[in-house]
Amino acid sequence: MTGYGRSKFVLKGKQYTVEIKTLNSKGLDVNLRLHTMFREKEMDLRNLIAGQVVRGKVDCSINNEPGEELRNIELNPELVNAYMSQLKAMAAGLSISDERLFELTVQMPNLTSTAQEVFDPEYWPVVEAALKEALADLLKFRTQEGNNLETDIRLRNDNIRAALQEVEVMDPQRIERTKERLLSGLEQQLNSEQYDTNRFEQELIYYLEKMDITEEITRLRSHCDYLVECMEAAVTEKGKKLGFISQEIGREINTIGSKANLADMQRQVVIMKDELEKIKEQLNNVL
């Protein structure tokens, strides 16, 4: 499930930003990009994230605000003077001004260095609070997305039920038409005196029992009800279970489709398959 969270905090007058992004993934994969000062707390940060995010690819960064790093830059005056002296010696006898030599000097390497900041244990409560704030923002985002997914899945599930209702209405017509078609075909080949009517009825009943979809309709309706029941359950991780239920729904729809020899009924089967595929796509985003 995708999500985004952000927060800010201040340490020693410097502002830092915490950003967390999540994408869909089968497991939990945490990638941290940290300011050098916070690297020693990497495991603590990972544990905090793992305690809130069950599954997904997580990218978390804690860095300075743009421009803050410039405040840690220090100039090495001794090295500047050394470069300047050497350039003056090399330029002796040449009409090169000190201003031009200074321009060349400041282009030399290693003139500046960044002061390394050490993590103080007193910083941790501030960093921890900022990360928790970003995680809360992330979870709020994911909850909203989850609510939208649930609404869409319920809609697709209701559409399957509606199509199933149409199939139930058509089923008696299908049986009657099948009976009429078989009887008509038999009478075209033989007259009524050349076949045993009772035997024909027995064979017809056996054939129609093989084509009966009552059990499939009952199971499909039950699976649709169970899908909603699982979504309403007070459990954090539901994605895999809902995926299994969707597979069972697909199995019953396919069986109905293989037995339905009525064009209008086949159209309803196609509608159910289409709605089920949309449910499966959405379930990829569910924990």
Give a topology summary.
Layout: E1 3-11, E2 14-23, E3 28-34, H1 42-52, E4 56-64, E5 73-75, H2 77-90, H3 98-105, E6 112-114, H4 124-189, H5 197-211, H6 214-232, H7 239-259, H8 263-283
Parallel strand pairs: 3-4
Antiparallel strand pairs: 1-2, 2-4, 5-6
Helix pairs in contact: 1-4, 2-3, 4-6, 4-8, 6-7, 7-8
Based on the model shown, name its key terms.
alpha+beta; 3 domains; Ribosomal Protein S5, domain 2; elongated; 287 residues; 8 helices; two-stranded antiparallel sheet
Termini, distance in Å? 7 Å
Physical arrangement of strands within the biggest beta sheet: 1-2-4-3
Stretches with pLDDT under 50, minimum 5 residues: none
Average pLDDT confidence is 84
Query: What is the 3D shape?
Result: elongated
The string of secondary-structure elements, in order, is EEEHEEHHEHHHHH
Strand content: 5-15%
**How many H/I helical runs?**
8
Q: Strand tally, please?
A: 6
* Number of structurally distinct domains: 3
Radius of gyration: 36 Å
Major sheet: size, sense and barrel closure? 4 strands, mixed
Protein model, in words:
The protein is of the alpha+beta class and 287 residues long. The chain folds into 3 domains: 3-69 and 121-139, 2-Layer Sandwich (Ribosomal Protein S5, domain 2); 77-110, no CATH class; 142-283. The protein has 8 helices and 6 strands, in the order E-E-E-H-E-E-H-H-E-H-H-H-H-H. It has helices spanning 42-52, 77-90, 98-105, 124-189, 197-211, 214-232, 239-259, 263-283; strands at residues 3-11, 14-23, 28-34, 56-64, 73-75, 112-114. Strands 1-2-4-3 form a 4-stranded mixed sheet. A two-stranded antiparallel ribbon has the order 5-6. Strand 1 (3-11) and strand 2 form a beta hairpin. Helix 4 (124-189) packs antiparallel against helix 8 (263-283). It is elongated, with a radius of gyration of 36 Å. The model has no long low-confidence stretch (mean pLDDT 84).
